Fold each of these.
Amino acid sequence: MSRVKQAMIETLSMFDRDIVDSQYTDVEGYHLYVKYSLELNIEAGDEEGARSYLQFVEGVAREAERLSFEYRAQLLEVQNDKLHVLFPGGADEREQEMVDFCLALHALATGPLRVFVGDSLRSMKYAATHGRAIVISTGIEPEDSMVSLGPAANDPAKKVYSGDVESGWLYYRKRPKDVPWVPVNLMVSPMLTKVANEKVAGTLEILSARGFVANRAVSLPSTSVDDPLTVQGFVMRCDLDGFTKQVQEAFESGDEMQVQALVERFVQIMGYAEAFAQNAGQYHFNVSRLPWAGDCTNMVLLPENGYSIARLSVPVKAAGEWYGLRSDAMPQTNEKWGSLLHQADWLVSLAGGGEKKDEANGWLLVADVNSRSRKFRIVAGWGSRRSLDAQDASKKFTNDTILPRSDAFALDQSLRSLFSECSDTPSYYRSNGLSREALGQAVERVSYTKPYVTPSIKTPDPKSYYDDVGRA
């Protein structure tokens, strides 16, 4: 019996061991997504706003974990704009506990935790679906991921982002389709006052986190929300467009071997980001991994030669290398990375920002949030929020690379010409089909300019910023 199959058929005892102890866990339960939205002056504002944002996110995460312990649940993900909580067990058995959890968390988030962000908290939305999913864990470090594959995990994630859920409401259902959503008003429930009185007591606990290490031996000091790490770079998000449909089809097929093959294939796909990080050195930037958000991998790109120089080329170099990696062979095999994608493909977005006051000029705050079983990494700043917005900036096409206008305009002209304005969101620009070959052609169009030097100093002719693009 394979290691994957053995792990998949194990019965999960959520209260004897954490789900993170097993790389693969086959579990039935409610998948709850909590989405919070704040004003841009907090999410994508200056350092003071970003610090307030980190404090709020950590506070919500810490209270969600405490409530998870009380309500026999598991906090799986803490992303920049959402939480993911699993309530293992039967649909009827866990229904009331899941609702009570939401009541308590909403009372906390809109009550004592609001001190961090005040009126900038725009909404708190909740959606949950019961069913089966395969939970994949890569570890317990801040950059590690917990990904849930299955319709029961996809369904509420789509719902909470759909625009159908009002702030302060929970929508849930007992299977992923063919049953209506049950709405629960978390703001006017008669339980609210009782829950708030019982759960709000206590002081918000702010814990320090352990070290934060970037790729290619770049070691950064340990961080906490009280003292976050400040870095300058780009946030890059790569969404595997079309993979959700494959997950849906595998689970609906009733074929366990097909489900097993899908899980094994996704774990291999997660290695794509590792291979990309290993190749980053030739383009003079480092890669710091962030947790996957479903089938979307996230990372921070840290330029070696200064942020201003990096704005001329790094967003395009990074996207071109990401797409170009599809034609490379996977380690210890002759198969190409692209063979894992089947009918799915990538959609890439990046954001850093310019020198305008509201764009942060690439500055990001990084903090790690400790939980009982693992650590979660959160990144705050203009680049983090805008790279997320860019994923929804236009009608999506696979092989697209999306940049905010300021980052597109900061590119060298030869690379800027590869982008055009998004038809329905003019503040973002898109390029389709970026590749190593496309970058090579752009290099040939780069004009060499010789900087002013004092006549008495002999210097070699300057090299283009793009000499390192492509492969020998």
Amino acid sequence: MDDDAAGATMPCMSFPTSARELTAVEWELVELARITIDANTDAGADEDGVHTMGAAVRTEDGHMFGLATAPTLMLAVARR
């Protein structure tokens, strides 16, 4: 498959050619999810937290919440 058919690629990820760049507002959610995951990871300093999952959501009024879960942590919530 050529690049146009396969879409953009990154290590272990591929995107359809119709994928668009994230907006600044969307990147804020990504960053909050990363911060929340990093603060609650089950990994050591030089390790990836392969069992840590996280997400961030924005409410209609603009509040953002980050959620993380790991084997040693049931649920962590961060509000920004």
Amino acid sequence: MKKLISLLIFLGNLHFYSFAALAQVDPTSSLLLKPGSAGSENSDANLDNGRYVVKPVAPTQAAKPIKRWASPTAPKVEKPDPTSAADGNSAAKQPNAAQASSAYANHPALENSANPVANSENKNFSEAVQAMILGGDSDSIGHYKDKLQPDDPRLNILSFSVAPSYLYIDSSSAYWFRRYHSGGPGISTSADIWMTPFLAIDIGYFTTLAADLNGDPTTSRTTLVDHRYTSVNFLFRKYFSLSKKSPSLTFGFGYNEYQMMVAQNEQNRIRLQEYGLDLSLRLAVPTGPSHAWAVSSEIIPKMKVTEQPTTSSAQSGGGPTAYALKFSIGEDFNLDRNNRVFWRLSHRAEKSIYTGNATAVDPATGATPAGVSVTTGATLLELGYSWGD
């Protein structure tokens, strides 16, 4: 009995150690393959004929390249080879300025963003100039017009005025040729072309119809004379709100000219022309939707005065210094957007000082004065009608 138990234990241990030894053998060894001669030279062939077959590796596809958008960069400029500088070949390798500029010109990204700071400054400057002259860009001006009431006169592009007038001039001087009183009816016209509600070109003209002045120092003879005023101005207008009752301030500058025309055969009178740069300022203060008071002032800081000969070639002197000031007040009555009536009273004061002696004897005193001074005042009353659209 004991021998039988010992035999069973021996067989169990033998079986256990045989399995442990087999578990430690490399599974890729030929021991796991089909039996054959140990150390046979055809062991490689036995691998192909055995029950284990090597799975073929599937061919892998090459990864597709990822396309990337190239960022706008400056065109590459080839640097000259320092070793070839001595041979004179560097000039051939280095592109000239025309090629470099053409490369930049053909590159849209570089053309628009070569200097963003300069582009921004130019844009800001152009916008500032446009806002100062036109009152804003086209979009902002269009939005401004859309907010106005349909019967607002600011929507008018053209305005034309005509006014029967009366002019009186008083010129005082120690020299007979520049001393006179004159007056008579006249007609005043003006046309305004509004490119925007804030910018216009104004053209004005006035002429007397039957004015006269004294033509002889010793008699009461009178002679016909024509007084003419011409002006061309740029007007810049500013409103303080969108309401029709909003006050407005208008600044203008341009050319102003005055002419006194007498007959060419006059012996004791000469013709006169005065012109210069005119600066003006006008304030309109509405008291209601259809009524407004208006006051304005003008100045010609440096006026050119020329005395034109007739039969007489008398001159008051040389190098005159002259200026002119003008003040006016009036009322506007707006009947509707297109029609308006107004009245206006204005006075213009001028001062001219000559150097040296006059060129002709004064027919009233028989003397030749020196340092002639002339002070002229012109008062004009207008009652007119204005049409706009």
Amino acid sequence: MRTFLTMIAMLLFVHVHSQNENSEPIVPQSEFIKLNLENFDSYLNEVYQDQISYTHLNDSRHYNRLKSLMENRMFITYFPYHDTEKYVNTLDMPLFNIYNPNLEYDYEFDLNSFNPFKYDLDFYPKLTKFYRIAHTNYALIIYPN
């Protein structure tokens, strides 16, 4: 019930605050888009680099959990940015750069290449998590298990 009310409030906020937006959004307003599963392996390769064989072979449960997360509980939505909002921004989160110290923050949003796994986000929250993607008009939503 709490998740449902949160979603209704977010949709209402998007509707009210998007009236002033001039550019055409990549993701239609109030629509929740799944991340591109075709890029899943490349996202993991970017983060784990040469350790990817370990992730694939030795701990396939971890691989399957991440894939299920991306497939079922992680969405992108158009959500106009407001200067006074208090949502966690991906730019404020540490990078998950244990295996790849060359990871860099995304300052622009591209639906086809945004890799949420390079950020040290709460992928298994107790409540729905909302992350602003840089200072863009897009947000990443992660639902609890």
